[in-house]
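This part of the workshop introduces the protein records we will be handling. A record pairs a protein's sequence with a compact description of its fold. Backbone structure tokens are a discrete shorthand for how the chain folds in space. The question running through the whole workshop is how a given chain folds. The record below serves as our worked example for the rest of this section.
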Amino acid sequence: MPLVTSTAMLKDAQKRGVSIGAFNIENMEMAQAVIAAAEEYNAPVILATTPSTLRYAPPAVFAGMVSALAEAAKVPVAMHLDHGSSYDLAKESLEAGYTSVMFDGSALSFEDNMKWSKKTKETAGEIPVEAELGSIGGKEDDLDVAESTYTDPKKAEEFVAQTDIDSLAIAIGTAHGVYSGVPKLDVARLIEIRKLVSIPLVLHGASGLSKEAVQTCIKEGICKVNFATELRFAYSDGVKAYLATDPKAYDPKTYGKSGYNSVKDLVLEKLAMVTEVS
């Protein structure tokens, strides 16, 4: 089927008290693996790319590739710009065929974040827009935030009302990249935000979080969970394992398949985590 927007899948997840998995991809094998896992699990899925990935290859390349894979897929697939670093990149992604975009203005002032998030939504029209309020710490790609700034529930309420965005990424103690210790999540803050904000809430920095931590957040209103760093490790470890056993391998298809298998196994595990919430 053609690429779909994330609107219906997020609203359905919100209604059922589960979450949609959003998985960052870097190449064709990772895209194939994510979709194959979603088909095996029979779950809708979001594939995403970050700004640094889109310097590696522009939005049109990833949109074209994922669109072709989605056409043959047995489950709904959405293509998302993750942590869009500028209005221009969001606009370019929309023009390339992305069916969901994020404008990340978390480093801006509250007023400028609202201004550019609203402008992104006006440009996107029916295509859903995610924004971020507060800042999620850690390092991943171009993101390097020394310290998290937690989302203020009252400001979240105002932000959503003023911008007309479709989903909101919140900061409650998660971090991008690899955790150096066990994160302490502010679930009480999530509960307060959920009381004031009706649109779908998004959890970033889920790579490395325990199943219990993720599912607690889902029970309290998170309906999209992003995974990025773990997928990179999985793909790279799969390739390294193959080359360790056959160091003379020269055909990218052979070791690429090993990376594919590692990513697929991980995505199956994460899909169970976000959809089998008890």
